[in-house]
Structures
1.
Amino acid sequence: MASITIRDVRKSYAKMQVVHGVNLDIASGEFVVILGPSGCGKSTLLRMIAGLEEISGGTIAIDGKVVNTLEPRERGCAMVFQNYALYPHMSVAQNIGYSLKVAGVPVAERAQRIQAVARILELEHLLDRKPMALSGGQRQRVAMGRAMIREPKVFLFDEPLSNLDAKLRVQMRSEIRKLHRRLSATSVFVTHDQVEAMTLADRLVVMNGGRVEQVGTPAEVYSRPASRFVATFVGAPAMNMLEGEVTLDGLSLLGGSRKLNVSRAGLPVGSKIAVGIRPEAVRLVAPGTPGALDATVDLVEELGAGRVIYVDLDGAAFSVVTSETAHPAPGSAVGLQFSEADLHFFSSETGSRLDVFKASMPVPAL
Amino acid sequence: MEKRVTFSRWSIGILFAVPQLLLIFTFFYWPAGQAVYWSLTLQQPWGGGNIWVGLDNFRSILANADYWNSITASLVFAACSTGLAMVIALVLAALTDRQLAGSRLYRVVLIWPYGIAAPALAMAFRFILAPEAGFMAVVNQVWPGFWDPGLDGTDAMASIIAAFSWKYVGYNFIFFLAAFQAIPRSLIEAAAMDGSGVLRRFWDIQFPLITPTIFFLLVINITESFQDSFGIVDIMTAGGPANSTNLMVYKIYSDGFKGLDYSGAAAQSIILMLLIIVLTIFQFRFIERRVHYR
């Protein structure tokens, strides 16, 4: 059990800086998920915590002790790798027990602890097998066992589920969650899969381009994205974004074809902004309904439980999620209705969230 | 399932195999067969037929102390040069694998010695190891008489071992480096997370995973040290001093072509062939068991 404190951590390779000053506090026993697209620096950050990458700047402290110069083995972290990284020439039991063997734990105690871990992970009947003879899910469990047996202060997961098929991934996801509840060790989990991130995290860290975009509970990140990037990255289908400009009497959207009557709230006339609305927050109504936006249906995606309806709004793509079985046919006209409370505003220049509109006044109908 | 090309008629398959079979027959089975035949006969040195003598050639060779001396020298040479070439290459490759900057250059530079013809290489080493002028002259200056491959059999043996190892270090290095690089980085990292230090990681993870390569190189190096040593011995020591470096392959040449004992040389080459076959079988039977194939 340990807390992790990350202060202004940077990483550069030659001249390329890939992590730009990350600050993060992870409480003891917390399950933190770092979410971001490929190449955002999330794995690099995790590997810096593990000690597998050198830290170019800033400090990482585990339990208040700065670990920048410590070897991986001295940091008390265990890691589950994306490709499992099982030792192919060792049996499952040897794989799980390797860290104890290195630490010089006597054979009898080692065997006992391997048994205990194998029981938790339901690997008892596989202990003599080589990794080659295991299925993907079993290998995943061995990798977890190898991390668990050391009773580490910190668990690090580097996209451990991305090599599994969809069904197994859901199953392993809940197993990881259960395991965390049972061991309640501090865990840092890196993924690019937002469903994994939302379901596992106590707290979510969204990264982009080597920077932290937002830190918060999954619900916070979903309902109040701190930036345009977070808004479009978290949630599927992605949040709809309409480009607009601040005018004297409010906002002009989509190159002036639509108006939104809100107070400028101190923003200079002509500033570019983006208005976001989640596809789930839009209702489909009959075309011509007062206060609704008229659009044309482009495409309907059947998801079983619901449908994603892609519409064309004055040339801008816009999506709507509906659970109703009856849905308009492609090519037909529809009205889009939503409440002002569901709108998100972002600066087009910096991409950061603007709360001025919501705070200042109710938004009249579009 | 693996897809296999199949031929509707077996004769077509045979046709495809014929060029290769022909080559192997012409350049291996036929000469080997001839050698077996000659080894059982007594050839006239100046031509004019031969007489069947059965196993007499083998009996006289095996009764000769010189021949046993040659076998011993060959085994010592094989063991030392293989050991030296493999250990040096392994260490170099392990170090290179950890610090990869410029590894492309190493790869090119280190394969070159293997491309050098043995006599040329031997000539260079003869100069380098010359007791009066070469690199070892410095040592002789400090300890007079310490090094003289022209008089001391051990020194001569050390010289040809050094030359042969030098040639094979580069060859082995390429294979070792490729084997090290084929080990996924994450395995090493996982071992580091498991608390294993650099040396421990080498013995527990890297070494077992490159055993297929080690085994392959062991077989190749030993086989080559029996056969490829001829040029080096001929130029550097010509089997001397006092037969101390008269390796089996060199003795075949000198007995056959200098001593004109064709039948004895043929018998010796059969023995050498059998020895290599036995050694290779031994390696496959007893050492390969400890190899981990992934």
2.
Amino acid sequence: MSSFIRKRAFASLISLIGLVVIVFFLSRLTGDPTDLFLPIEAPEEMRQQFRELNGLNDPLLVQFWNYLGDIVRLDFGVSLRRAQPAIDVVLPAFLWTLQLAAITMALVTGAAIVVGSLAAFRVGGIFDRIASLTSLIGASAPDFWVAIVAIVVFAVGLGWLPTSGTGTVWHWILPVGVLFIRPFGLIVQVVRGSMISALSSGYVKTARAKGVKSRAIIFVHALRNAMLPVITVIGDQAAALLNGAVIVETIFGFPGVGKLMIDSVLQRDFNVVLATIMITALAIFIMNLLIDLTYALLDPRIRY
Amino acid sequence: MTDHLLEIRNLSVEFHTAAGTVHAVRDVSFHLDRGETLAILGESGSGKSVSASAIMNLIDMPPGRITSGQVLFGGRDLLHLSDEARRDINGSQIAMIFQDPLSHLNPVYDVGWQIAETMIVHGTPRAKANSEALRLVTRVGIPNPEGALRKYPHEFSGGQRQRLMIAMALAMKPDLLIADEPTTALDVTVQAEVLSLLHELQQETGMGVLIITHDLGVVAEIADRVVVMNAGEIVEAGITREVYHNATHPYTRKLIGAAPGKGRMHQPGAEAEPVLQVRDVVKDYAGFRALDGVSFDLMAGQTLAVVGESGSGKSTLARILLRLDEANSGTALWKGRDLFTMPPSELFKIRRDLQMVFQDPTQSLNPRMSVYQLISEAWAIHPDILPRAQWKARVAQLLQQVGLRPDMANRYPHQFSGGQRQRIAIARALALEPKLIVCDEAVSALDVSVQAQVIALLDDLRKTMGIAFIFIAHDLPVVRDFADHVMVMQKGRVVELGTVQQVFDAPQQPYTQALLAAGLDPDPDVQTQRREARLALAGA
């Protein structure tokens, strides 16, 4: 198990380095950072001094090496627009997004498992039909549209909920609710499909022959077997949320990583953009590792 | 009221499918007493499993529907009880074991938990259930029972898994045990052990055993009485020995007649030339020696049967000869050229001479390809064999050769029965006019009567086209009817190699003798003698 984690960590390190290479050289391709940092009318001596100070006169490879060293210390340079270290801008935003993603995915997972399992238990029954239809609608609904309609209805029309911000629990309801819909629809479908095959398996027949109650057959015997493909999709959806739910965060003015990234790109605040990319990449790597470990936890046949 | 433990009266079950209503069970009646073993004998689709499922409330409704009848257990009609009442009976008074113990044990829970669960759902406290599970696992002969309880199903062998299923079924000391093809997936020696275990446990507990099987040998070994089912109806019922010797219904007689292992054995001529000479083949898989110095000759136009239990290396041998896997050392001379060291271009040319037919035609035929596409694909790969204009005619010819109609070429595999599918697989192998066909358990999944037809087809092809066969099988009677030479394998080694008569009539090695003794004969009298011989052998 620990050798598996080491191996995976090593593989991820390589992809992270690849990511750094791409990110570093791409940002250099956009031109001399001096133009970005200094006012357009800055004299040449000032520019020269700035380059010297920031090591921009060194060969590109040396610069890259220094950049790597800084990243290891979580030093992504200074935010151009906020005059504070980029990491100090990114981390709080990332924590907001992490909370949003965690709350949403916890709700999605719980609800989708229950709904999908019950739908699978009586295929073609009334509950199954309602669940299948709603989940299909949910999986197909465009979130920017849902978000705007939700604001129009619940915030503007009914006045029940705030339109944006993060102050109270009420502020969380709309973003979480909107983000909930699509992964919920998708995961209900996956749970349902996976549970249908688990419920028609031999071991479920055995359980019925043993006299096990229906609820235990669904949630003890079948569910754990049906979870592997579900976990994969959950991980996939969670990764998408961690990346920052750009549109939803922007619409609801939620101070998360997605909104930060968009703002920083628009402001050409490259150090912040790079920092968000690296932090979310790291988070997604850790999450994938957790998912692999969950596989092994759920299924004793999987051993690393 | 009735005195029988179980009495089925006029049971009819139908299934409503898109294709129409299937009358799976029609007006079936039988009974079973305490301490008695009743076998329901039938081929696939005969309704034997559906009848048993009705007793256990395992029929999915819909699409299934019990249209009439009674299932009287201890005088109560189970069909009129609530689901809850039937759940209380399931597992405690009536228990069931299934054909494939690997898929019928839950892979993600340890076996101790699964055995204890039977007792816990019927109200036994957990601590008592756990200690009882230990006793049961010990009783069914699992080595290191304490450690075994914490292991998962995939960590056991097939025979051990079926023993664990039996332990689980017997946890509540049921009055009735239903065994649905309990030994079909097991090796012959293991089959004999499991059937003996069932018999012993029945003696101990006095339960009634209802055994569902397609195998006359199993009936002869264990059943007091037998009910023969065909197409949803009971065609014959009676004491096992009487039914075997004095069958009245034509279907029963056909079934008994089709049982393999009674024909005249082949007497291979000595003058034939070897087409394949295999020497000292060794194959290692990560520290495990799957093949250990295997050598044999295969003569042109003859059949070499490779028999052995699972893990003996027989399927590995097939894969290696066809270069689907690489040998670690050894040679295989095909017409003087070594298959193992041949360059890819030469191997590609020779591949058409070597074809394979697999065990399960449902899996080995691509479900999205028509029969025409399946058979003609070979000519697309080897375009020099047949110009495209002649494909259609040749497919028709091949279909006729394997006993199918040319107009079936546009159908898809799911539109055929199991036996027909295996014929398609054979036609596909014949498309390249091979000199050697390797059959890996090619008839094991087929019903007895279909099995006999497919074997006759293969033997006919051997005679008329001079094709040599390597026939891998675990079923000795089939081998006896078809093989010229027999090679017995155990743990990767060749234990015995000789003509079919030498091996069957005068086996030299104890392992071969044990294999033959463990085989089940359809004749109850022969089987009784064989059982006694086997017990004597085990006692010695």
